[in-house]
Amino acid sequence: MDTNHNRPHYINPYLGGVLLGLLVLLTVYITGRGLGASGAVKSTVVTTAKIITPAKAEHNAYMKKFISPDHSPMYNWLIFESLGIFFGGLLSGILFGRVKKFRIEKSPKITNKTRLLAALAGGILFGIGSQFGRGCTSGAALSGSATFAFGGVLVMLAIFGTGYILAWFFRKLWI
After folding, report:
1. Nearest by Cα to 86 from 49, 44, 25, 52
2. Are 163 and 157 in contact (CB under 8 A)?
3. pLDDT tens, residue by residue, 120-150
4. Is 109:172 a contact under the CB 8 Å cutoff?
5. Of the candidates 76, 98, 78, the residue with the CA atom closest to the CA atom of residue 89
6. What DSSP string runs through 35-83?
7. Residue 74 C-alpha from the chain's centroid
8. At 169, is the pLDDT very low, low, confident or very high (cuts 50, 70, 90)?
9. Cα–Cα distances in Å, from 40 out to 31, 46, 84, 135?
10. pTM of the full predicted structure?
11. What is the phi/psi pair of residue 68, to 5°?
């Protein structure tokens, strides 16, 4: 009896890795730069701050670099790339039956609240780290490594090395 017929179907991870590498190469060839996501979040945060508190945003030493009277931070290809990733992922989920109902994937040993708080804390730490590192896994690590940038290789080693070291402490969130 096949017990896997209700499990979501995912692409083979090796094929997915090859396709992702080809996408990075194509992106570098077409745009002259690689993929990234944290820049879209930064543009969104700057735009939101400018709408809510324009004076503070324009006088903030970090945010004022991205604000100009003739150019919106939202008119950036990273915004459109991130929207494409979101809607492409949603379409993929719908087409392959992974979008059935809202669910929280976690270990049975923890509560939904613990899992969501851990995800929120991890997201905040990763967001802060991406700003210190001038890019996230896709921008600094993936695209940086694809262009043989030493910083990209260093970021990739630091991300996966730290993940490998810390996985033991946080494994109960997943298994």
Report:
1. 44
2. no
3. 998 898 888 888 877 888 788 888 888 888 9
4. yes
5. 98
6. --SHHHHHHHHHHHHHHH-HHHHHH-TTGGGG-BTTB-TTSSHHHHHHH
7. 17
8. confident
9. 16, 10, 12, 11
10. 0.71
11. -145, 155
Tell me the residue type at 20: L
3-class state of residue 111 by DSSP:
coil
d(CA 6, CA 110): 24
For helices 38-52 and 112-132, angle between their N-to-C axes, nearest 10 degrees: 90
Single-letter amino acid code for the residue at 170: F
Cβ burial of 150 (10 Å; 0-12, 13-18, 19+) is: exposed
> Which helix (H) or strand (E) covers residue 114, if one does?
helix 112-132
**Other CB atoms within 10 Å distance of the CB of residue 138:** 20
Amino acid symbol at 46: V
